[in-house]
Amino acid sequence: MGKVTTVILAAGKSTRFKGSKSKLVQELAGLPIICHVVNAAKKISGNDVIIVCNKNNIKNLKLLIHNCKFVVQKNQKGTADAINSAKKLIKQKQLLILFGDVPLISTQTIKKLILNFKKNKSLASMVAFNASNPHGYGRILLKNNKILKVVEEINANQDEKEIKICNSGIMLVDSNTFYRNLNSIKINKIKKEKYLPDIFEIYSKKQIPFSLIFSSENEMLGVNTLSDFIHANKIFQNNLLKKFIDKGVLFLKPETNYLSYDTVIEKGVTIEQNVTIKNKVIIKSGSLIKSNSYIEGAKIEKNCVIGPFARIRPSSVIGNKSKIGNFVEVKNSTIGEKTSISHLSYIGDCNVSKNVNIGAGTITCNFDGKRKNKTIIKEGAFIGSNCSLVAPIVINKNAKIGAGSVITEDIPSNNLAIERSKLKIIKKK
């Protein structure tokens, strides 16, 4: 494919985004918006990725993004000025320009852009799309299927505003030709800024060869407002759902589910309504996730039943054919195969073996006020309802704990432990 340097423009101030934080760090399907763009770029350029920031967001972006170069656009005089800020860091002849607020851009589209660039022996290639509502986008003026120029919304006359072929801003250019002509871009009289797409009018006049490819409007969606973000999230979720449905995953009410960008779900899984799956979750074949369950950073092995209303927290593994009942919370624990944890239980910092039964209302008391302690429950153990296991503690093989017990000591194998205060009936005077 050839070597490509990628520049991601991320110096905007997000003035139209009214969220509690910058649009670039707002999580879309579990990943900050700009990180989606960076991931796509790295599949093309490896670590040869440059982020153009402003002085206010560079610190936060450096915390989020690793193995990239950063440069500050000092004066913020438009996108042409932004790309000029990165000039000294450009290594390769081919330069890919992306935007930090276009998170749905796919590697497939970028590869298509690169192939088009080579096929047409272009010195520049751009991504265009047909907009259902072109308001706010730069319009592409064509004559005999050749691009004359890109007209920004603020400069467009009424006829030009009717054009629905729009510029995404994403482009691949020959870096040498590009920077030789970049300074020829004039300052916009209204906004007092230099717009990067004006480079194509210069190319057209100089007969420098360039071309375009088309992508979908959804993929080119720029997140400028909260409404844009909601729309982008809906598109992303629909894309994830389609991927898994095509793979053989059954969603009973897909519009109510939430998935993460890195979710892994195998064929034969059934997911009921109102299920949230976040960050590094793996669900293996044959498992059933019942309604209103919340799973984060966990692994669900084959043929498990989770929920309804279960919460599986990070660093948890649920073994094959295990059942996690309604209103059960599992945190940082390994649950062995064919283990059942009934409703209203809390299992935290535990190592639970196979064929264990944990009754309803069982609590592992893992925190002593200073540190988290481990509970170990070995194969075949039976924990009665409404028990409290005060960690650190070991419940050995085939041990049984009577309902309502508070256990503070290790229980030997094949023994029954019961700890209850003596019943007192106090008569009223």
How would you describe this structure in keywords?
429 residues, alpha/beta, Spore Coat Polysaccharide Biosynthesis Protein SpsA, Chain A, UDP N-Acetylglucosamine Acyltransferase, domain 1, ten-stranded parallel beta sheet, nine-stranded mixed beta sheet, 8 helices, 19% helix, 28% strand
Alpha-carbon distance between the two ends: 92 Å
- The averaged pLDDT comes out at 94
Tally of strands: 37
The CATH homologous superfamily of the largest domain is called Spore Coat Polysaccharide Biosynthesis Protein SpsA, Chain A
CATH hierarchy: architecture of the largest domain: Alpha-Beta Complex
Largest sheet: 10 strands, parallel
Q: Structural class given helices, strands, pairing?
A: alpha/beta
Q: Which CATH class of the largest domain applies here?
A: Alpha Beta
What is the CA-atom radius of gyration, in angstroms? 29 Å
Backbone shape: elongated
